[in-house]
Amino acid sequence: MYPSTSATGSSTENHDETSSSSSSSSGSTPNESISSSTPATSPGTSPNTPPFGDGDSEITPSPLAHRVLLLLDIQVAMLSPPPIGVPASLQVKEKLAIILEHARAANPPPLIIHVRNSGDVGDADEPFAPGWQLIFPPLPGELTIDKRKNNAFAGTRLGSVIPTDAEIVVAGFQTDYSIRATCSTALERGNEVLLIRGAHATYDRIEVLHGGGITPAWRIESEIEAELEEAGVHLLDMKDLPGIFMDR
């Protein structure tokens, strides 16, 4: 993976892929896993954290799932105090916890999918490194999918577990990489996509080609929100909870 041009910390996301990446592969790859919670673990991992590359779960998500909460890269590295984590790590973590609480309390709950980025050797999110671990351990019935690209549909089974007519609520990291690429691909598939303001974030950016100035993370987040809204993503606010997960 390639390091970001970040002013306050190094990104753990992949920057070699655009938002127009293909949606999904038809099968599992060595770099991808789908697991239900509490599978067997590898040495040094939490019992609540599914191991990398453990293959498909025997639990098959219902093809009738009409609403999905897609949690992108909500991992220890991203939510560590700056400069390792994003500048707004504390505030975003609190909002993500609230969103997940509302989703789990909904009746019926959405299909909850935790997508975990797996970096290269030496990266903060290298598999089984402390920064790779998920912040919110999946509960029974929730899925974990490992990815290596910004687009969570690329090279994974995500496209096979989310119907093309499902509504996808997206939150997580990074706004200008995984959030942008995954939302764009979901729109291309025909999914209705909802992005929650304040529940996604990125790093400040050093503008190498423009005299070394810094573009703050909040401005990048706002720019990507405007770009995605123009493309068809619905922007929602935290005040819209818990209605986001209710039948409408």
From TrEMBL:
Region (Disordered): 1-60
UniProt keyword Methyltransferase, yes or no: no
Pfam families per the UniProt record, alphabetical: Isochorismatase
Species the sequence originates in: Agrocybe pediades
A single MF term (Gene Ontology): hydrolase activity
Every Isochorismatase-like domain range: 68-204
Alphabetized UniProt keyword annotations: Hydrolase
UniProt keyword Aminoacyl-tRNA synthetase, yes or no: no
Top-level lineage group: Eukaryota
Biased composition (Low complexity): 19-47
Protein name: Isochorismatase-like domain-containing protein
Family: Belongs to the isochorismatase family.
